[in-house]
Amino acid sequence: MFQDRLDAGKLLAAKLSKYKGKKNVVVLGIPRGGVEVAYAIANELRVEIGAAVAKKIPFPGNPELAVGAVAFGGMVSLNDSFAFQHGVGKDYIDGEVNRIAAEIERRYAAFRAEVPSVKGKVAIIADDGMATGHTVLAAVRAVRKGKPKRIIVAVPVSSRQAAGLVRAEADELLCLDIPDFFRAVGEFYRHFPQLTDEDVIGYLKKSKAA
């Protein structure tokens, strides 16, 4: 059980200590909650921070259930078998991908942020946890296009299914807890408040100022 996202980020940073002070390292948080984790990691390691915006594709009529996810640059991770089994059609998915891609552009504008260059760098992608893994996987695919030296996914907690999915495409998965029973990310935190866009902007600014 983690106290909060900042506590989880510090614990992850302790496992990443060999990257402390390295100029070729950048931490990319997935908004909103992942940016708070990323801030704690970047602050401890004294490295650059940025946002890797990715959003889930909601199941029709149930926005809490994900069919997949879209990341910046239009990169997609889709649970094909789940979509097929539940009759989620291509037209719906294509429409959601286009809608979410536009929303991602709006969010970058709202955050007044850009994706930092990752070419030749160690890119650490951080989130506050992984349930299905598709949001992080879409981010991994998007970051990979920037030709980083290495991609590390750093999360406090993950379901076993998500960990397997992400481990197959990231160069390294750093996860502090992969429990046998997983229902929701928030259940592994004592304090898990919803963050606002202003919170995200604040963390990105504070890190830049440091």
Compact summary:
The protein has 210 residues and is an alpha/beta fold. It is 40% helix and 23% strand. It is globular and about 50 Å long.
Short key terms for the protein model shown above:
about 210 residues; alpha/beta; Rossmann fold; Ybab, Chain: A; 5-stranded parallel β-sheet; 3-stranded antiparallel β-sheet; about 40% helix
Characterization of this structure:
With about 210 residues, the protein is α/β, with parallel strands linked by helices. The chain has two domains: about 5-55 and about 110-210, Rossmann fold, CATH 3.40.50.2020; about 55-110, Ybab, Chain: A (2-Layer Sandwich). Helix content is about 40%, strand content about 25%. It contains seven helices and eight strands; from the N terminus they run H-E-H-E-E-E-E-H-H-E-H-E-H-E-H.
The number of helices is 7
- How many strands appear in the DSSP assignment? 8
Basic shape: globular
Alpha-carbon distance between the two ends: 29 Å
CATH topology of the largest domain: Rossmann fold
* CATH architecture call of the largest domain: 3-Layer(aba) Sandwich
The helicity comes to: 40-55%
Secondary-structure-based class equals alpha/beta
Domains (count): 2
Strand order of the largest sheet: 2-1-6-7-8
Give the C-level CATH assignment of the largest domain: Alpha Beta
Radius of gyration: 16 Å
Percent in strands: 15-25%
Average of pLDDT: 91
Stretches with pLDDT under 50, minimum 5 residues = none
